[in-house]
Amino acid sequence: MRNLSGNQIREDFLRFFEGKGHRRVHSSSLVPANDPTLLFTNAGMNQFKDVFLGAETRAYSRATTSQKCVRAGGKHNDLENVGFTRRHHTFFEMLGNFSFGDYFKKDAIAYAWELLTSPDWFGIDKDKLYVTIFEGDAKVPRDNEAEAFWIAAGVPKERIFGMGAKDNFWQMGDTGPCGPCSEIYYDLGLVASENGEDVPFPQDEQRYMEIWNLVFMQFDRSTDGTLTPLPKPSIDTGMGLERVSAVLQGKLSNYESDLFTPLIAAAARLTGFEGGELASERVSELALSDEKGAASLRIIADHARCSTFLISDGVLPANEGRGYVLRKIMRRAIRHGRLLGQEQPFLYKMVEAVRDEMRAAYPELKESAERVAKVVLAEEQQFARVMARGSIELNVALYNVMSRAVSQAYREKNSLYRQAYLKYYMSLDEIEAPTFERVLDDDWKQEQEHPDFELTAAMYAPIANYMQLAQLDGKKAFSLYETYGLPKDFISDASRDARIDFDEDGFEAAKEEEQQRARASWKGGSQKTAAPVYRELAQTDFLGYTALKVEGAKVLALVKDGVGVPSLAPGETGEVVLDTTSFYADSGGQVGDVGWLYADNHGTLVAEVSGCRKPVQGVFAHSVTAKETIAVGDVVDTVVNGEVRSATMRNHTATHLLHAALRQTLGTHVKQAGSLNDRSRLRFDFSHFAGVAEEELQEIEDIVNAQVLANSKVETLVDVPIDVAVHELGAMALFGEKYGDKVRVVKIGDFSTELCGGTHIGATGEIGLIKLVGEGAVASGVRRVEAVTGTGSLGLFRRDADVAKVAASFIGAGDASAEALRARVNAQEEEMKKLRRELDQMRAKSASAATANAAESAIEVKGVKVIALRVDALDKAQMRNLVDELRGKLGSGVVVLGAATDEGKVSLIAGVTKDLTGKVQAGKIVSALAAKVGGKGGGRPDLAEAGGSDVAALDGALAGAAEVVGGLLG
Questions:
Q1: Half-sphere CA count of 148, side-chain side, radius 13 A
Q2: Residue 652 labelled as part of a binding site
Q3: Helices (H) and strands (E) in the chain — how many of each?
Q4: With contact defined as beta carbons under 8 Å apart, do 596 and 622 qualify?
Q5: CB-CB contact of 137 with 167 (8 Å)
Q6: How many CB atoms lie under 10 A from the CB of residue 456?
Q7: Is 656 annotated as a binding residue?
Q8: Among 269, 271, 537, 569, which is least packed by CB within 10 angstroms?
Q9: Mean pLDDT, range 478-488, rounded to an integer
Q10: The whole model's pTM is what?
């Protein structure tokens, strides 16, 4: 067996299949193109999915790839196992070879056996290999055909094992292509066994490791479960690079291979584990061991790879979807860094280590690494803040549990138990005073401050009896785990320290519930085959790049509500598929054309076209409202609305200019993250970490309009090999697009070169002018710029001119510039602030004068003086000041103020002097009064506020204040 590096294994695999007539295809993005059914690319076949489904054709019938994959969410979720097993990963590379209706089982089996066992290639000992085949079921017979081909390739019959559908029958989804498969296993030897026992294949999953799966797609499953043989059976195989690297390097664990050991060493250095320096043999030992800290290093190494590639492919940390999974992965790595003692940001430095190890196979990392590191650092800094906040929320949750336990003690015993509990737990470092201030209710606070409060050690025992019943709810704990990233162990330990039971079963149930929701949200691989009505049609010949009108287009199909129909009657809506068209279909951010279909007499309007799309590759479906009866086989003229097309093209070409200008101004880390080009505007989303300053926006605007004034020619190069387009012409690929081997390149002088299938103007001067109209955040690390062109710019300037006229009349004759208007507005704002201050002072003085003798008119209730006044002129701050003033005049007593606000609401405030808060609390007073005015409120024992909606009831509520106080005094 040859000892090969991971990089050499990858290259040898691809080179082997190139020698067998396969096209080497570069790995697709981890964000599946045009496939909303997948969370992430999770298998080598994903980028060929439409080919297998019959919705796309390629210029080749054999392909080989090394596909980057992620399984960390949705249906395929290995996240919790990563780091604790030998071969679970979030990010991995899948080596594969594919046949699209070309060769089948015989050749696929022969190729696999040759590559694995030939001394010219991997040279694996044949005695170490086992093969499985589908053993058959009620619908599909045993795959004797595959068994015969394995035997012919040189596999002994006794090493071929039949297995059930769970392991050896593959399907893309509930419907569509499916078929039996063969898996190849490698025997790692007795040393790898689970229990040290020598058991036969396939009973020990640790010893016998699957390294390659050969899928034989030979059936099409219908919605009723019927299996129909495919006219062109296909091949899809997948071999894990990490697994085969471990095999060829003689390792038991994938983490011992050279794909991981440099990253584990980097993780140790950056976290300071064992002083930060590890010998190579120590790294290999940790990659396999269960020693404390070893799993954390493996997790950091794996998650650094995954995070680097996901961010490089455009995914950013977020609170939902792909970004949420990325955030969980990153935070898991950060937590394990903290377990190793590293409290400072470190994961962003791992990006450099990943780049250095993998840039040979993925050269795009050289350009994206700096941007990726910035995203990771920002997330690390944010997580530090979240952890601090999460710790406070955990303390509050624990305190609430304690509170309920003590309440039980209080109800069943007496207040001394509660007093003992409070004083005991107030001394714990984990529960900070501000937390108590926020969650203690008025009664408890008063009791804790009572001068007779005492505590003896003997009181702890009855408290402990009730604490045995206290438990931190598992659902609440999981909420802290999900929201703040608090590790389960951290939550469990904090609960134990607080003498509270941790509901682990409830935690796991909540976790499983969340995973079920995730699986329901992302049903990867469930996409159905293309509807037969579209799939069987010939491709539409698109002539719209050079013509707005095409005569003699034949109606190939009519579709209504997803079903083919022979005709559409006047007034009916549906889709028309033509053999040729001038209508552009939605793609690349450009909306489809609108226009009309005319009868072959060139004068009768047959249908209005409101849009165009491509349900399968190359087939154009026109959304129409029929004006005359239209039937399959009819011949029509396609006429695009030229005015709308021109406006859309101006915006589309402006998008290319804007993309280049953003990169020139903000940096080459800027990458498109989405776009929309229609007749009215353009919208461009891009990767960037901060808001774009006003002066930067002006610079960008100047740059793009300089290109417009230059009237540069917009060149379109067709059928350019994609490698030439990207590497020689320097063309940029657009976000979310899927490209074939031959591409269209849109080149605007030396300023912009992009891969693009959209329609464009002939020269930049036709844009007229580009005016930016907005900039803002879309998501973490993603900004959005919006702009208008052509007549849209004219409309914007007219609007601004009207504003300028109003400004001129406001300022007066002379300078009506933005600076002059700003200065005038600022001056008037200062004048308004001054007048407001003076008015507030006058109101306060007036209220103070009006209440100067209020203390003398106080009502005495059970020995307590009560003042209740209506003060409509005052705001809340002034009311609080007046309460303080009146309490001072009373010396001892209760003050209640009420006011009707300008918004037609009621404000109430109650104040109690300190000497009385043990007898009556402001919060209870104001709560009772608020109920009378249709509101509620509360606060501290000495000062509390409330609101209400019934102004008419305010006087009555204030008149009843003395009665409320008397009731509370008992």
A1: 6
A2: yes
A3: 29, 37
A4: no
A5: no
A6: 8
A7: yes
A8: 569
A9: 77
A10: 0.62
Q: Name the band, by pLDDT with cuts 50, 70 and 90, for residue 829.
A: confident
Count other C-beta atoms under 10 Å from residue 951's C-beta. Answer: 17
Residue 944 has, within 13 A of its CA and on its CB side, a CA count of 24
Rounded distance, CA 242 to CA 154, Å? 26
Residue type, 576: V
Q: State the residue for tokens 């201050």.
A: 837
Question: Angle 321-339/294-312 helices, nearest 10 degrees?
Answer: 150
Q: Domain residues of the chain, as ranges? A: 6-256, 261-362, 394-519, 532-640, 646-798, 856-969
Give the right CATH number for 646-798 from 3.30.980.10, 3.40.50.10860, 3.40.50.1980, 3.40.190.120.
3.30.980.10
852 pLDDT band, cuts 50/70/90, is low
CATH, domain range 6-256: 3.30.930.10
pLDDT at residue 40 tops 60: yes
How would you label 552-570 residue by residue, b for 16+ Cβ within 10 Å and e otherwise? Answer: ebebbbbbeeeebbebbee
Fold that domain 856-969 belongs to in CATH: Diaminopimelate Epimerase; Chain A, domain 1 (3.10.310)
pLDDT in tens, 123-140: 999 999 999 999 999 889
Please answer whether residues 534 and 615 qualify as being in contact, where contact means their C-beta atoms are separated by less than 8 angstroms: yes
Q: Are 6-256 and 646-798 in the same CATH fold?
A: no
Please classify residue 311 by burial: count the beta carbons closer than 10 Å to its beta carbon, then call 0-12 exposed, 13-18 middle and 19+ buried. Answer: buried
Q: For 234-248, 442-456, 812-826, 942-956, which range has the lowest pLDDT when averaged over its residues?
A: 442-456
User: Which residue type occupies 240?
Assistant: G
Q: Which CATH architecture has domain 532-640?
A: Beta Barrel (2.40)
Question: Is residue 76 part of an annotated ligand binding site?
Answer: no
215 bridge partner residues? 181, 236
Q: Residue 420: pLDDT above 60? A: no
Q: Is 745 exposed, middle or buried (0-12, 13-18, 19+ CB in 10 A)?
A: buried
Residue 448 has pLDDT above 50, yes or no: no
SS (H, E, C) 428-484: CCCCCHHHHHHHCCHHHHHHHHCCCCCCCHHHHHHHHHHHCCCEECHHHHHHHHHHH
CA distances from 651 to 591, 675, 686, 770 (A): 11, 11, 16, 9
Dist. CA 94–CA 244, nearest whole Å:
10
